[in-house]
Specification:
single chain; 289 residues; mainly alpha; 2 domains; elongated
Length: 289
């Protein structure tokens, strides 16, 4: 246990170790829950290593950091459940609509695609609330944590195929999305005025387009997915207006890529909302010695 505590302390920046190392070691040594507190210390140390903060150490702050990190890692699963719930709600609405008008296959799939909008709106609300509570370097931490969560979902046998039939292609698309979204969120912090949101919206569409292209290019050969249709893959997947861009068959792209583009879209809204809210939230100044 003492060796693990030493390793946890080593994760802190040097100035924090010099200032609070004995205090942290004493807390761990006398703790009635050493393993839980050791995990809290490790999470807090990683956060301080990234942000170079030097606030006074407390177990409460360590636990807060751990809980926020856990929430970011779990947020893709939560947003996937939200999107699935909205899509499930489309079924009864379609049955009701059939009483007044004819609902064909195209209209049904369009209705399911539209459910991304309320899911994205809820993601924006959750993201804003998360950002207001404080996230260290949200432009980097949030896309990275969400990418880990998304890859974890995609790696679950059978159930993970909700994010695409090809696990390797899903992981590559998610990694590209995380890198592009991090750059986009960081750019948003540097922009001011009326140009901020137009640039972020266009940038988000470009990132989502590239991530969708990456998935299809990796998972399907040029015979099944003609490359001249590449710019249409993302809008086709999002709108269900499929003219046969894969295998020359209606909705064949949706059968291959599942809800990955929709999930990345919802997650992009969440990331940008967190970053925007965190930028408006004043940080607590470090306490004096």
């Amino acid at each position: 246990m003492r060796r693990l505590a030493t390793l946890a302390l080593a994760l802190y920046p040097r100035r924090i170790r010099d200032r609070y190392g004995d205090e942290i070691a004493g807390l761990l040594r006398d703790s009635p829950r050493p393993w839980r507190d050791l995990a809290d210390v490790a999470w807090c140390a990683l956060g301080d290593r990234i942000t170079h903060r030097a606030e006074t150490f407390t177990m409460a702050r360590a636990r807060t950091t751990a809980l926020r990190t856990a929430w970011l890692l779990a947020s893709p699963a939560a947003l996937t459940a939200v999107l699935a719930a909205f899509m499930a709600a489309a079924g009864p609405l379609l049955l009701l609509a059939e009483r007044f008008t004819r609902v064909d296959e195209h209209a049904a799939h369009t209705a399911y695609a539209v459910m991304v909008l309320p899911a994205a709106a809820l993601a924006a609300l959750l993201g804003a609330r998360t950002g207001r509570r404080g996230v260290a370097r949200p432009w980097l931490a949030v896309p990275a944590a969400m990418a880990v969560g998304l890859v974890a979902i995609a790696s679950v046998p059978d159930a993970g195929q909700i994010l695409g039939e090809h696990t390797g292609a899903s992981a590559a698309a998610i990694a590209l999305w995380a890198a592009g979204t991090a750059v986009l969120a960081r750019l948003g912090l540097a922009l001011r005025g009326r140009w901020r949101w137009p640039v972020q919206v266009l940038g988000a569409l470009a990132v989502l387009e590239l991530a969708t292209m990456a998935y299809v290019l990796i998972s399907l050969d040029a015979v099944r997915a003609p490359r001249q249709y590449a710019p249409l893959w993302y809008p086709t997947a999002m709108t269900a207006q499929d003219s046969g861009v894969v295998d020359g068959a209606y909705l064949q792209l949706a059968d291959v890529i599942k809800i990955l583009p929709a999930m990345l879209t919802v997650c992009t809204v969440f990331v940008l909302a967190v970053s925007a809210a965190a930028a408006k939230t004043p940080r607590t100044a470090p306490q004096p010695a």
